[in-house]
Amino acid sequence: VKHPELFDYAAKAMxxxxxxxxxxxxxxxxxxxxRLIGDxxxxxxxxVKFRFDNIRLKETFAxxxxxxxxxxxxxxxKILNNAELAEKYGFTADNFFSMFIPNTYxxxxxxxxxxxxxRFHEEYEKFxxxxxxxxxxxLNLSPQEVSVLASxxxxxxxxxxxxxxIAGLYLNxxxxxxxxxxxxxxxxxxxxxxxxxxxxxxxxxxxxYNTYKYKGLPPGPIMMPSITSIDAVLxxxxxxxxxxxxKDDFSGYHNFAKxxxxxxxxxxxx
Length: 270
Description:
Blueprint: H1 4-13, H2 33-42, E1 48-51, H3 58-68, H4 73-80, H5 83-88, E2 104-107, H6 113-127, H7 130-138, H8 143-156, H9 163-176, H10 183-190, H11 200-203, H12 227-234, E3 243-246, E4 254-257, H13 260-269
Antiparallel strand pairs: 1-2, 3-4
């Protein structure tokens, strides 16, 4: 605004001072006062394009939301840790994080945290269509359990094309009642994400997320699962592998094995 006095005069003449609508508005070079005030008065704001992916913790997600919208991170943190709200949407406090499907969303800046979460739930319902629900049921898993397993697959895989194989391995372990023994869950249980190699001392922690100690799936995701990892579980590769070890070429891929003897050979190579 080059002349605040003229803007103020025009704003009052157009009744803007009585009809202020908060929001995030795009101002274009060369806009007239009339156009600018008309947009502000009419509440013609521009939606925030909010994209998220590769998020490990609720606190990180709350921080991203707080930076993108009017409410601060504390308000979003309370929402994400609200057990009653989680139950309302069919989740537990532990697995509520799996309701947020990574994607790009267009949401107005001054939308309340409750409404934003409701929007994410709508997208979650769309994502879990009949086809995906049928595939989950065929695995004897709920959508929430698929997401928990997908978070482990995502934590274990450096390459997307290997996710269906890793998913198949963990599903084999689940069906046989074998401990998952997934290193990413141990790192999560220790709450130390600087761990690069899981050692015996890390395996001793008594925590339901420690899949070296507790059978079955942990109570919630160890990170926000991606669409790719969820679909990798639903469309897993069928095989008889029970063990895997990082390849000795440090490519980020794994050698898979059906027996302890085969696995020990792979482990010695690494």
